[in-house]
Amino acid sequence: MVAKATKIAIDAGFRHIDSAYFYQNEEEVGLAIRSKVADGTVRREDIFYTSKLPCTCHRPELVQPCLEQSLRKLQLDYVDLYLIHCPVSMKPGNDLIPTDENGKLLFDTVDLCDTWEAMEKCKDSGLAKSIGVFNFNRRQLEMILNKPGLRYKPVCNQVECHPYLNQSKLLDYCKSKDIVLVAYGALGSQRCKNWIEENAPYLLEDPTLCAMAERHKQTPALISLRYLLQRGIVIVTKSFNEKRIKENLKVFEFHLPAEDMAVIDRLNRNYRYATARIISAHPNYPFLDEY
């Protein structure tokens, strides 16, 4: 399914493919990318591939070996972007979510500045063209930016972002530091039972977005994506549906006027779908800070 969806996306015109070691699908994604290179649809350099360092590999000596393992799965020579997948460190080992016999998460204590130095070495080696972070709050970003001897700052910070969580303060901060904000959960409607509460509000049924979509002859999803795009945010969309994959690219075919942007701004309720409460006991849990 993942390989098929990736091929459909590339054929439709997508060039940024976002995955992670944690997702356990890099063999399929790599196969799809290589097949589209082989049939002449794209060149490798046309594809911008993002992978992520899992929480169990924050110890500096594990960072590059983990990236090398991803590259072996992908059968690619490099990734275009490598992210620290989360500021919360977990016990190293084969389990992606390590727990004890009682089901309690096994955390690790790692200085993320040391992790970042190992990420810098991945860039030096050419295994990663760029490096960044995922789900870091302002305080955690500043910790990296203020690190003595910093050689490469994070090029981006990927966070949940949509009209109900518009991340305006974090966006302003990232822009001030020339860090790109990348949005996941851009449609705010994932229904993964392990991560999302069942009674979560359904963003795409919001009356304001629906009315605006009707007026612009677009879908609520496209209105939400366009809102983020016009704020200078890079968007990661997820779909296995061919019709929706192709539809998402229509975000470039229209423009929202300033008054509509202001209306959507007011929909913000600082509502986070992916709270990751499972890791909230760790001192680096990122969502206790305002932003």
Automatic annotation (TrEMBL):
The record marks K52 as: Lowers pKa of active site Tyr. InterPro entries: AKR, AKR1C, Aldo/ket_reductase_CS, NAD(P)_OxRdtase_dom_sf, NADP_OxRdtase_dom. One of its GO terms (molecular function) is oxidoreductase activity. Residues 3-268 form the NADP-dependent oxidoreductase domain. The active site is at Y23 (proton donor). Coiled coil: none annotated. Substrate binds at H85. The keyword Nucleotide-binding does not apply. Keywords: NADP, Oxidoreductase. SUPFAM superfamilies: NAD(P)-linked oxidoreductase. Belongs to the aldo/keto reductase family. PANTHER family: ALDO/KETO REDUCTASE. This is NADP-dependent oxidoreductase domain-containing protein. The lineage of its organism: Eukaryota, Metazoa, Chordata, Craniata, Vertebrata. The gene is Akr1cl.
